[in-house]
């Protein structure tokens, strides 16, 4: 009886790819994601500077200073924004109204105090983008996301093997039936 090494080779390749994916997601990928989203927030800060440079808001305006400080805070603590930390903060916020006052974002208060509706809209867009970038960073750096991605890839791989295994016996039966008919 002849033993094919192809299934063993496929299994070995799959395990090496899985190991490589785990190493990549747990190390360099997390740093790259963090650096990428920090850069995106720096770009938002540059947009704010351009708004002030073009006279839409004054450099000495407390609103400008607070929004800029808020973006700096976001850059500085982005590595601390993780899925478990976000869940903990959300649970604490729901349970304690006092914590809401403590955690209330001063950048949002400054933006809300802006009298110019067009400027307020632009500043709100900057603030919302910075929050989105922080959330994306947290989700993409999360080990849970890596596990889910691996599970999805595994299911996709198994799904294609499952479909192939359903087709193979039918094709074999057809070939055997054709061979039997040809002999008789």
* Proportion of residues in extended strands: under 5%
Low-confidence stretches: none
Q: How big is the Rg?
A: 28 Å
Distance between the termini: 28 Å
Q: Can you count the helices?
A: 8
| Overall shape | elongated
- Total beta strands: 0
Helix/strand class: mainly alpha
State the helicity in percent bands. Answer: over 70%
Global mean pLDDT: 79
Biggest pleated-sheet summary: none
- Which sequence of SSEs, written as H and E, runs from N to C? HHHHHHHH
Give an overview of the whole structure.
The two termini are 28 Å apart. The mean pLDDT is 79. The chain contains eight helices and no strands. It is an all-alpha fold and 184 residues long. The chain is elongated and about 80 Å long. The chain has helices at residues 6-26, 28-53, 62-77, 83-95, 97-103, 106-112, 117-141, 143-183.
